[in-house]
Amino acid sequence: MKLRLLSSGVFLAIVLLVSACGGSKHGAASSPGAKVFASAGCASCHTLKAVDAKGQIGPNLDELKPDQSTVAHQVRTGGNGMPSFKRRLSGSQITQVASFVAQATRGSGTFPTFKPDNTTVEDCQTSHKPFCYRQAFGNIAFREGPQKALALLATDDKRISGVHSDCHQISHWVGHAGLAHYKGDAGQALSHGAMTCNSGYYHGVLQLALAGLPRSTVVKKAQHLCDAPAVNTDDFLLYQCVHGLGHGLMIYSGDDLPWSLQTCHKLLTDFNRVSCTGGVFMQNLDTTMGVSRYLSAKNPIYPCNIVANRDKVYCYLMVTSRILTLDGFNWKKTAAWCRKSEPGWVATCFQSLGRDASGATRYVAKNTIQLCLYAGKNADECLYGASRDYANNYAGGKEAAHLCKLSPARYRGYCFEGVGTILGAINRYTAQRRSACTAVTPRRYLPDCLRGAAVT
């Protein structure tokens, strides 16, 4: 039996058949659920203090603290490489083991948190230790606060290739450590973050903030988790917070896409509801978590073509990340798949392609443009999506404007409109939006940037 692991900020999903774990060699309590845990071989895969289980293959259940419904769902349906136990265990056995795990972990240990060590950024430049930079920056956040860690990360992103190539995930770890620094207070942690490397910090905070809570509590907490004044008075930070919540819902629920979307729908504003779904769909595509059961190799556009219309926008804005992996990063083939999208969603798919192009080229403008030109007649949408990602990644318009200036003349206006959409999100007031556009946009394209920023 293998559930989702939250351990030192790492979310591991190892594709193994349960038979590979073998039988339990550890003692177990005498309850029916503990006996099922032992007989199914769970102890060889999982750590669970109540039965002296010390398995390292799957999740540390004492740290994850899953509730009963989450355990039962995962055991029954499988997913992320785990086979379903529906035919191996009876309904009553699944209920027994789910109840046992939930009760056994409820009082075990403390809030799952980042675990500091002595790793430094300097160590990582000569070390081959896995996730070295993630741990090093997390250590800084844990001891000195996330603001210092994020400031150093922004600098080292530009000078150390190993940091640049993993910057978003490093910032996730800074989020885990930042939450620990503020002793589990998500509001405090979110208020002391920054938008470094596509705002992974906010995602990291939310991923751990939900661990161990029953689903009913998560739904209620989700409605107010981003209420901290420092977040709620800034549209861009609010977006990042609610987007991170979407990631957290998927991780918490074991990639239960329908439940995660339903929880997003219960948030209190349209802005929050839509932004939350973006995090849900991004997490669904995260291949480090194993292969979600809500993905299809035969139809890479799935699940965008089956979700409710209100959920399609962010699904299609991320769909090419999935298609590219199936196509071996053949950009022409992926463009062909975009043209097979549902009517009305083709342009959105090509905007997703632009976002992927910017990341694949590490934000080297001329290379991003070259990839977008593979989109042919849809290159304008690709560059629009790329310009938005540049502005989002750098929390400003300078680098995005450079991309637009280098683009073919016929695409520049729409490219600058994309820049404007992000500048409009970063800046709350009209005067600030106008100033931000004016600072980076040639006069000829200024109306395009202002239109994107919703400045009339």
Describe the structure.
- The protein has 456 residues and is mainly alpha-helical.
- 59% of the residues lie in helices and 1% in strands.
- The chain contains 26 helices and 2 strands.
- It has helices at 32-39, 61-64, 68-77, 91-106, 121-124, 132-144, 146-159, 161-164, 167-181, 186-191, 196-209, 215-222, 229-232, 235-253, 257-265, 270-284, 312-316, 319-326, 331-338, 346-360, 365-373, 379-393, 398-406, 409-426, 430-440, 446-452, and strands spanning 47-48, 53-54.
- It starts with 31 loop residues before the first helix and ends with a helix.
The major beta sheet can be summarized as: 2 strands, antiparallel
Mean pLDDT: 85
Structural class by secondary-structure content? mainly alpha
Number of strands: 2
> Which sequence of SSEs, written as H and E, runs from N to C?
HEEHHHHHHHHHHHHHHHHHHHHHHHHH
Question: Portion of residues in helices?
Answer: 55-70%
> In angstroms, what separates the terminal alpha carbons?
57 Å
Overall shape: it is globular
* Major beta sheet, strand line-up: 1-2
Secondary structure tally, helices: 26
* Estimated radius of gyration: 23 Å
Briefly say what this structure is.
This protein has helices at residues 32-39, 61-64, 68-77, 91-106, 121-124, 132-144, 146-159, 161-164, 167-181, 186-191, 196-209, 215-222, 229-232, 235-253, 257-265, 270-284, 312-316, 319-326, 331-338, 346-360, 365-373, 379-393, 398-406, 409-426, 430-440, 446-452; strands at residues 47-48, 53-54. With 456 residues, the chain is mostly helical.
